[in-house]
Design goal:
Layout: H1 2-17, H2 21-27, H3 30-45, H4 52-80, H5 84-95, H6 101-116, H7 120-127, H8 140-187, H9 199-208, H10 210-223, H11 227-237, H12 247-257, E1 261-262, E2 265-267, E3 270-272, E4 276-277, H13 288-312
Antiparallel strand pairs: 1-4, 2-3
Length: 313
């Protein structure tokens, strides 16, 4: 309950200042520190020529090592937190780097602004910062869809899931989740290099996001103003998504905004024939990212209120 209050403080700090660029230049960022450790393990252990079984085992060992070196210090720090308001404030500062509400908002606004002004080139450049596929192949509707999909999925991965696991297990849960999610983003790809080495990281990330992804979808539906439609699309279409989790917040957002999301897309030289979410709805227009951001802000306000109520309880 006390760490729920600390999460509220962390939310407030991140909403006000995000992670200042000057601070990043000075010390980096805790998630980048985790990323450096993952990269070292991967370069050392993921050697070509090893059998799939050996790579699976080495990848699993990497997951264990990264969780030990990240979660153990957070357990020690949690034990050292003072009681009362001092502990809440210090806990909030420690939670701050692992919450990304303002950062996510800023990234999507950077796409929404030029798109609404008809500056497709600038919008493509901005969306390239938050998606993994070639933005040069996207028209305005594709850019709008990509930004909304990223907003929906990252609301779950970047905010709701850390808050959920932080609420359950305190600072160690928050840090442990971010370590798992960072491993998935770095080595959890289905590619020739990571298919076997990153399998455990990818499966673990799927597991820890099962509940938060569905909670994010529910949160979007509740604040959408079109709750029945949003719930209906989510319950009907989420399971058709390529991801066991991302489809839930994306489908809820598609229903909330009455646009279609996902669908066929190109990665590199391959076309992925993904099914549509809310297929009968129109394409996302140039204003859709702004409408998605309004939905997102309402969801974040409700999330902070829930955290505050949990802390007061």
């Amino acid at each position: 309950m006390i760490f729920a209050a600390a999460l509220c403080v962390g939310f407030l700090i991140e909403a006000l200042v995000a992670w200042p660029s000057g601070l990043f230049r000075l010390v980096g960022h805790p998630v980048t520190w985790i990323g450096h450790a993952i990269r070292l393990c991967e370069r050392w252990l993921n050697a070509p020529g090893r059998s799939p079984l050996v790579l699976n085992l080495l990848g699993a060992g990497t997951v264990v090592v990264i969780l030990i070196v990240t979660v153990l210090p957070s357990i020690v720090l949690s034990a050292m937190l003072p009681a009362g308001w001092a502990g809440i404030l210090i806990g909030g500062v420690l939670a701050w780097p692992f919450l990304a509400a303002r950062s996510l908002y800023d990234h999507v606004v950077a796409v929404a602004r030029p798109l609404a002004q008809g500056e497709t080139g600038a919008a493509r450049q901005a969306v390239s910062m938050i998606i993994g596929r070639n933005p040069d192949l996207l028209d305005d509707a594709g850019i709008a869809r990509a930004s909304l999909e990223s907003l929906a999925e990252n609301t779950s991965d970047g905010i709701v899931a850390p808050v959920f696991w932080g609420g359950v297990f305190g600072l160690p849960g928050l840090v442990g989740y971010k370590a798992i999610n960072t491993m998935d983003s770095m080595i959890g790809h289905r590619s020739a290099r990571y298919e076997h080495f990153g399998m455990v990281a990818a499966r673990l990330d799927d597991l820890v996001n099962l509940i938060p992804a569905r909670l994010t979808g529910v949160l979007f539906a509740l604040v959408s103003g079109h709750m029945t439609r949003s719930f209906s699309v989510m319950l009907r279409d989420a399971r058709h998504h390529r991801s066991p989790n991302a489809g839930w917040p994306e489908a809820a957002m598609a229903g909330a905004l009455d646009v279609r999301l996902s669908g066929p897309r190109i990665y590199g030289d391959q076309t992925a024939d993904e099914p549509w979410l809310n297929a009968t709805a129109p394409d996302a227009g140039a204003s859709a990212p702004y409408r998605g951001l309004a939905l997102y802000v309402r969801a974040m306000v409700v999330l902070v209120v829930i955290l505050a109520l949990v802390a007061l309880a």
